[in-house]
Amino acid sequence: MYHDSTSTVAYRSSGALSTPSMRATSLLIAATAAIGTAQAAIGGLSGLHTDIPRWCGKAYESAYSSFDPGGQLYAPDPSRDLLLNLQLVTRHSIYDSSERAGAFIVDARLSYIHGSLYTRPFSAHAGLSYAHNSTYTSPTATEYLSNVTHHFAQLEIEIRVAATNQLLVMGAIPVGSSNNILEFDLNDFTPRREPYEVVLYGRTASDHANWSYTASTELYYLPAKYNGSTVKIDNLHGGMLVANHATGYAFEPLVPFGFYTSCSGYLNHSLANVAAYKNLGFNAINPVCSLEDGDLGYLFDWLDGEQLWYQYDMRNSYLNLTAVAEQIPLIKDRSSLLSWFTAHEPDGIQTALNGTRLAYDLLKREDPYHPTGLVLNCANYYFEEYTSGTDYIMQDAYPVGINATFSKWNTICNATYGCCGCDDCLGELRVRTFFLCSSIGYAESAETILTIHFPMPGLGNWQKPLWSVLQVFDGEGHWSREPTPEETWVMMVLSFNHKAKAIMSWIFPASEMHELAHGKMAKVASTGLVSHFLLAADPVQIAIPGRPLLDVSYWQVGDKVMVGLANLEYIGINSTVSVHLPMHIRRIESQPWGNLSWSFEDGVIVIQGLSALSTSFVVIHVGNQPVNVGVGVFVFQSHDDNHFVIGRRKGSSGAGTYALPGGHLEHGESFEDCAIREVKEETGLDVDDVRFLTAVNSVFSETGKHYVTVFMTAMARDRGSMPQLLEPEKCDGWSWSTFDELRAMPGRGHELFLPMHSLMQQRPAICDKLERGPTALSPT
């Protein structure tokens, strides 16, 4: 919300911090005037009705009517044909001559949104279209597996330097795969400040000599610096690596953790204030001032001396490229420069759409050794245009203490009208309200509309790292109270659980309560085990059945897993909570954050109750899951009838899907005995002529469990018998079906159990015989 911009002026222009209520009206006028002056260098405001007061493109005063602000992101119309979305990026945003090896990340995902034609269209979706006000259901797994005949084909690839055609990498990757890491030799390049263009060529075996698919990227291989700092971004996991004299100019990982900080209200007072800030546990800072505000070189000398990494703030000058160019040489070789910060809520203020990109291009040209960041505030307003000018994206949704539906301006707040302090938020600690109510979250949510991956709009072909800016204030007519420390810690864990790689809260100095609360987490999250997990892996979400307000993710690095948990409830949970991890648990090693009672039982980690708004990071030693053996039985009525028994599962893995009678193979039990026993227990049918059919592999993504499913065939002894529902807690009911009908079920909204998909995918010839019935099946 705009209070950030007005506060910036206040902190720079007065000798002491003023209260929010004192500065709200007069400083808004000053900020607007300053923005207008700066924009003259680039020109224009975004959106419609630029002559009236707006925020996020929307009118917010009662004197003006609601209108569609425009600039929204919508999921594109999907293709009728399957596409191969080939993507290429360097593992790190830059390399320098101190390094000998580099790496590319290559994705070869299948998509209905981006890419080049890969296989024939799905006839079931002929004429399919998708718009923002309709619903698109992507092809089901059965259709996907039965139509994508080359799903597990290999894509032959070559990666070459565009200008010279020099070969860097040659090999093959699986079609449908992602995050393939391919190393190359940096000695093949001459260090320079300008990027090299690199091209990837791909073809499948059926393409013969033709390179049917291409992707390209820029490779920065810079002369190493032995003064100042160098900072790179890990494009695989989103973290930062930093190098300066304190690291011996070797790159070390960093989780930036700190505050936007007042200059005139705190930092300018003394070096002791800078040291006191760092001693709270913070390793990073964003001074809300710049050299444009006067001779502040001594301040940045202090920050360098304290080895405190800083974003250099250009919010009030980035739209004036002359001013940007003048500041770059004065800052770029400082030893603690972390990054350039340009636009502060450009989507809220509605600055020129090309402003962030023009400033970014200038900074990248003059200083390729440091990344650029900006912060967004709006739920869905020209996200792609504004984020084209940044290397990482910060969000500053402030949800605590707001009325999310009616504003201080006496208007309602919705997608087209009003300003309530947190754009399109719920005013609660929720993933949707807090972290995902920014355009970052919109794009992430849009991706899940289609179950086959497409890149996030505005991020080119790769997702940009996310940072979180947290609320530690109240006032200004929107925020009735500050967050509590517990709410603050929930927002922090929630941020990390949803891929945030840094915390930079608004604003310091804050209340002692918030300074200590932030410092306590900073000492844990920016050092040691927790920072290692945050930077070396991506979080994987875990749904807790019946607990939608428990937000849980895990990070895995080798044989160690860190679980992050945030209880978003304002009341405690007195019962036991179970967290199922997709790996075998050996032991619980430590709890770097929180004081929950973690234990594990039968391979499941368990918490004995949670207090309201509780948070935790727990580290677990894991091993591979044991391979389970299941038996599924095609029970036919007779040798000349192709109908078999099928039922809808419930209360277990694959609940809601259709499967055969069957179950786990018991110790010492034969396949035949298991088939006879399971069919009898579940359906009451007696069977004979039990035969082995085939076996398939299945790995359940939601649990990580690996099953070998042994498929058997059997004949009902009594041809006229009907299956009974003997285990209603496991199945909704049994019926007779054919394999043709089985294939068609997903198209009618009836999903199949994963081993049935595995059977169709891995044993298509046997499936063809099953369509014809038992007589087509020969013993094996």
From TrEMBL:
Residues of the Nudix hydrolase domain: 626-759
Signal peptide: none
Keywords, alphabetical: Hydrolase
GO biological process annotation, one example: dGTP catabolic process
Family matches, as InterPro entries: Nudix_hydrolase, NUDIX_hydrolase-like_dom_sf, NUDIX_hydrolase_CS, NUDIX_hydrolase_dom
Keyword Transmembrane helix: no
Highest taxon listed in the record's lineage: Eukaryota
Pfam families: NUDIX
Coiled-coil segments: none
GO MF annotations, alphabetized: 8-oxo-7,8-dihydrodeoxyguanosine triphosphate pyrophosphatase activity
Keyword GTP-binding belongs to the record: no
Name of the protein in question: Nudix hydrolase domain-containing protein
Organism: Teratosphaeria destructans
